[in-house]
Protein backbone atom coordinates (compact mmCIF):
# COMPACT_ATOMS: atom_id res chain seq x y z
CA UNK A 1 0.00 0.00 0.00
CA UNK A 2 1.26 3.47 -0.81
CA UNK A 3 0.55 6.81 0.88
CA UNK A 4 -1.72 7.62 -2.09
CA UNK A 5 -3.64 4.35 -1.59
CA UNK A 6 -4.03 5.14 2.11
CA UNK A 7 -5.21 8.69 1.40
CA UNK A 8 -7.74 7.39 -1.14
CA UNK A 9 -9.14 4.88 1.35
CA UNK A 10 -9.20 7.36 4.23
CA UNK A 11 -10.81 10.15 2.18
CA UNK A 12 -14.02 8.10 1.95
CA UNK A 13 -14.29 7.84 5.76
CA UNK A 14 -15.47 10.13 8.55
CA UNK A 15 -12.57 12.55 9.19
CA UNK A 16 -13.52 12.77 12.89
CA UNK A 17 -13.27 8.99 13.44
CA UNK A 18 -10.38 7.89 15.67
CA UNK A 19 -7.61 5.90 13.99
CA UNK A 20 -6.54 2.54 15.39
CA UNK A 21 -3.85 0.09 14.40
CA UNK A 22 -4.74 -3.60 14.09
CA UNK A 23 -1.80 -5.73 15.24
CA UNK A 24 -0.88 -9.43 15.16
CA UNK A 25 -3.27 -11.62 13.14
CA UNK A 26 -2.71 -14.58 15.51
CA UNK A 27 -3.70 -12.61 18.63
CA UNK A 28 -5.45 -9.56 17.13
CA UNK A 29 -5.31 -6.45 19.29
CA UNK A 30 -6.22 -2.79 18.73
CA UNK A 31 -3.69 -0.03 19.40
CA UNK A 32 -3.75 3.75 19.13
CA UNK A 33 -1.44 5.55 16.71
CA UNK A 34 1.07 8.05 18.08
CA UNK A 35 2.56 9.44 14.92
CA UNK A 36 3.54 9.22 11.27
CA UNK A 37 7.20 9.18 10.28
CA UNK A 38 8.78 9.29 6.84
CA UNK A 39 12.15 7.58 6.44
CA UNK A 40 14.23 5.75 3.83
CA UNK A 41 14.35 1.98 3.42
CA UNK A 42 17.52 -0.04 2.87
CA UNK A 43 17.50 0.85 -0.86
CA UNK A 44 17.07 4.57 -0.20
CA UNK A 45 13.40 4.66 -1.21
CA UNK A 46 10.97 6.67 0.91
CA UNK A 47 8.77 4.72 3.30
CA UNK A 48 6.17 5.90 5.84
CA UNK A 49 5.74 4.36 9.29
CA UNK A 50 2.68 4.58 11.53
CA UNK A 51 3.88 4.52 15.13
CA UNK A 52 2.10 2.54 17.83
CA UNK A 53 1.54 4.73 20.89
CA UNK A 54 1.98 1.80 23.26
CA UNK A 55 -1.67 2.08 24.30
CA UNK A 56 -3.18 -1.34 23.71
CA UNK A 57 -6.95 -0.98 23.74
CA UNK A 58 -7.81 -4.65 23.94
CA UNK A 59 -8.89 -7.36 21.53
CA UNK A 60 -9.71 -6.38 17.99
CA UNK A 61 -13.47 -6.57 17.35
CA UNK A 62 -14.15 -9.97 15.68
CA UNK A 63 -15.79 -8.37 12.65
CA UNK A 64 -12.58 -6.40 11.99
CA UNK A 65 -10.42 -9.53 12.18
CA UNK A 66 -12.81 -11.23 9.73
CA UNK A 67 -12.70 -8.28 7.29
CA UNK A 68 -8.89 -8.32 7.44
CA UNK A 69 -9.05 -12.08 6.65
CA UNK A 70 -7.20 -12.81 9.90
CA UNK A 71 -10.04 -15.00 11.17
CA UNK A 72 -12.87 -16.99 9.66
CA UNK A 73 -16.40 -15.87 10.43
CA UNK A 74 -17.69 -17.86 13.38
CA UNK A 75 -21.01 -18.36 15.05
CA UNK A 76 -21.26 -19.16 18.71
CA UNK A 77 -22.51 -22.69 19.29
CA UNK A 78 -26.11 -23.09 20.31
CA UNK A 79 -26.52 -23.37 24.05
CA UNK A 80 -28.94 -25.77 25.61
CA UNK A 81 -30.93 -24.70 28.62
CA UNK A 82 -29.59 -25.88 31.92
CA UNK A 83 -31.91 -27.79 34.13
CA UNK A 84 -32.65 -26.17 37.45
CA UNK A 85 -31.09 -27.94 40.38
CA UNK A 86 -33.30 -28.89 43.23
CA UNK A 87 -32.24 -29.74 46.75
CA UNK A 88 -32.27 -33.47 47.50
CA UNK A 89 -35.11 -34.74 49.65
CA UNK A 90 -34.60 -33.94 53.32
CA UNK A 91 -32.31 -30.94 52.75
Automatic annotation (TrEMBL):
Q: Lineage of the source organism?
A: Bacteria, Bacillati, Actinomycetota, Actinomycetes, Kitasatosporales
Query: Region Disordered: what ranges?
Result: 71-91
**Record's protein name:** Uncharacterized protein
